[in-house]
Amino acid sequence: MMSALTTYDHGIYLLGVYFDKTEDEQGNESYSAWHQSSDVTEADLRNVRPISFTPVLVDDAKKPVLWGTNKDGLLCQLGYFDENTVPETVAKKQTFLRHKQPLTVSELNLDKPYSLMFPPLNVIGQLAETHSSVKALNDSLKDIYSNKLKLKNKKPIEFTINKIKVSQLAEPYKGLDKPLTDEQNDYNAWYNKIIASEVTEIQGIITPVFHSLGVVFSSDLYVGAEISLIKVKPKQDNSGESEDVLATSFVTKPDPSDDKTVSS
Same domain, yes or no, for 236 and 201? Predict the structure, then answer.
């Protein structure tokens, strides 16, 4: 039960952090493998935050499991319908995802890597209309991840349950120019409780987080146009350039067939 967790070091969190990137002499990029380590307390890892309200699907050929995080990023078992085959008309009317009890370190194999997928909630919602079991959901999502997203080795990425120091968590948000969001206030409240509990370490699954930027144009006339993402330098360096070009791409027209990926 949720109330049984009187300390913060018994649960398993879904944690997000920006992974360090390195580049070799040939220009090949690689990232830190923190997600596959069981202990990163001595790593140069900082600004870690729990990820709230996120579904996590544990891939297993025989018995896949659906997890989900609560507002504090604590992983819980996630109920999917009633785990029995139900008529489609009933499935559409009921709440198809329910948080159950939080996962604890004693329930999981800390030495075993878990193959995980992180399907967006709206994708699960679409598939739920015709998939009334976690097994059926897992089979369809694995096909999408493996074939449509072209995953390496045709299988989901493996994650290990690892340990971080509380001191590696991000500092609380500060409202400077505008009020904090509900999500930021939730993090600050959780962080303060963690500090007050005097727990020094917590366990969780570390995942990479990224910034993303999407640009949509209103007319086909822009197809083929070149777009650059530019960062203005705080001060001019020896290159004489006042800007850094971070990325360049071209405007393309979406393929309508791509929208049908998860409709069946």
Answer: no
Residues 44 and 16 in one domain: yes
DSSP 51-113: --S-EEEE--SS--EEEEE-TT-BEEEEEETTSS---HHHHHHS--EEEEEEPBTTTS-TTS-
**What pLDDT digit, counting tens, does each position of 90-137 carry?**
444 445 567 778 888 888 888 889 989 898 888 888 887 788 788 888
81-92 tens-digit pLDDT? 655 444 454 444
CA 218 to chain centroid, in Å, comes to 30
Percent of all residues in the chain with a pLDDT value above 90, rounded to a whole number: 28
pLDDT of residue 67: 92
Q: Decide if 176 is inside a domain.
A: yes
Is residue 170 in a domain? yes
Q: Do 183 and 237 sit in the same domain of this protein? A: no
With residues binned 3-state (H G I as helix, E B as strand, rest as coil), the percentages for the chain, rounded to 5, are 25, 30, 45
Say which residues have a Cβ less than 8 Å from residue 256's Cβ, sequence separation at least 6.
Answer: none
Q: Per the structure block, which two tokens stand in for 144?
A: 């999408």
- Residues 207 and 225 occupy one common structural domain: no
Q: In this structure, are 245 and 148 located in the same domain?
A: no
The arithmetic mean of pLDDT across residues 192-213, rounded, is 89
Q: What is the reported pTM?
A: 0.74
Domain containing 86 equals: 8-211
CB-CB contact of 166 with 203 (8 Å): no
Q: Name the 3-class secondary structure at 116.
A: strand
The residue with greater pLDDT, 75 or 150, is 75
- Number of domains comprising the chain: 2
234 in the same domain as 193: no
Which of helix, strand or coil describes residue 31? strand
Same domain, 163 and 233: no
